[in-house]
Amino acid sequence: MNPPPINIVLVEDNPGDARLISELLKDVKGGRYQLEHVDRLSSGAEHIRKGPVDVILLDLGLPDCSGLDGLTTVKGIAEQVPIVVLTGLDDEAVAVAAVQTGAQDYLVKGQVDGNLLWRSIRYAIERKQLEQRLAYVATHDTLTGLPNRFLLTDRLDIAITQAERTHEKLAMLMLDLDRFKTVNDRLGHTIGDRLLKQAGDRLTAVVRGYDTVARLGGDEFIILLTQIAGAADAAEIAGRIILSFREPFIIGSEEASVTASIGIAVFPDHGRNADNLLKNADAAMYRVKGSGRCNFAVCDTSE
Questions:
Q1: Is 190 exposed, middle or buried (0-12, 13-18, 19+ CB in 10 A)?
Q2: Predicted local confidence at residue 122, as pLDDT
């Protein structure tokens, strides 16, 4: 089965250069592609937004946006799409700056044949995919696919900044699975891992689409709730989570039951930065575990 054609957008204002690039690609043996040519960055932006686009060939000397400003603009429009700069400017410093700005490659017109151009396109796509995979691994838990501590902290910092500006509140829910060790001891770590993944799925299904469910490690999860009126909203969601965990987890032929203990800290009532919110949510969660588990508690200001 042949792979699908590569969707290429060529942003080039010189008709002669555009024809030359088109002819170079036609000469590539076995190259399967769809080429869309636009002569302005504004037209290219419209086409890129509509998609699908697999790679962008970008001239830096456009009438409506020249130099690296054009590259920055395209990056903002199509962060996930690889960009190959194709320009008449043979300047090493500009080439380095272009790559540092986000281009996958920098080619000089007149120094490129069809095979080199096609290889650059293919490599740019592969490099971008690798970049995205590495970024995903760095920001997500490998077991559950949920955001990890790094991504959670980033989102929390952004949420706090926004909440300060709009005078809204947000909440951190620290969740620990009750007696999870018993599951691991009785059924083994493979079943335990599958239970953790199902637990993450169950949490994601309970919260709102714009909230964040993250796994810190072990059997600890964090839920970041934004755009709430106060502790009562967070408590309502925590109650729904507690209720959802009353259903047993079915893992293959095995059945396991775990409950959840949840501590809640609200910004700005219980902390004005990420560290204090996490610390106070953690303290509230351990208060729950010490008083019978399978419940939630809002941070006590004395914590």
A1: exposed
A2: 95
